[in-house]
Amino acid sequence: MSKYLNTEFLKENMMGPNAVKLLEELLQGLQFNPNMRVLDLGCGKGLTSIYLAEKFNVNVFAMDLWISASENFQRFQKIGMDHKIIPIHADALCPPFADEYFDAVISVDSYHYFGRDAQYLDAHLAPLVKKGGMIALAFPGLKKELDTLPVEMALSWTAEDIETMHSCPWWQKLLQQSKMLEIISITEMNCFEECWNDWLSCENQYAILDRPAMDAGAGKYMNFISVICKRI
């Protein structure tokens, strides 16, 4: 049970399907040592950063482009976690860190926005991780590639809205082009329904806009994808 991530705090700060539950499943079986340096890439309002710092006692660099460092700092400071989480406002295409600085990189519900270029991993992300270190990703995907936008999805989203979403085989083909990472696993996650239900129960304006598609059954086309890689 988290001291900080109660239902009220989660609903107030969610930016999509429950990122903490996604992170819990993503990290099953993975080990972290206290005081490791971990980059939380695309951290949003820092829910996953709080989880990492609280559960594993690691030093988290909470980086996001859409949420300012000042806003996240105030959030971390309010709950007394600012000594373990460093807020950073930066673009994932220009991460401001030294090579091999991190023991691990975590990214939940954000990698699909900026990581669809085959060159991204080796050009921008893998160099930041120590050899033998881990990159763990969780993001929305599709059960299979779509030729057209299904009518259920069109109730809430346009084709442009979902162009970031792809299937496990699509991501496998893309990510295996990296020369700096060993792909350990690319799998469909189990927490889809639970994470979406938590999000749709929020009064966030974007959650409300997502409800028509999900109520009509758009979820039958969708999943969440887990990716585990090791720096070589």
UniProtKB/TrEMBL annotation:
Domain Methyltransferase: 38-133
EC number(s) from the headed UniProt entry: 2.1.1.164
Highest taxon of source: Bacteria
Keyword Methyltransferase: yes
GO biological process: methylation
UniProt GO MF annotations: demethylrebeccamycin--D-glucose O-methyltransferase activity
CDD domains linked: AdoMet_MTases (cd02440)
Keywords of the record: Methyltransferase, Transferase
InterPro entries with a match to the protein in the record: Erg6_SMT_methyltransf, Methyltransf_25, SAM-dependent_MTases_sf
Protein name: Demethylrebeccamycin-D-glucose O-methyltransferase
Organism: Clostridium formicaceticum
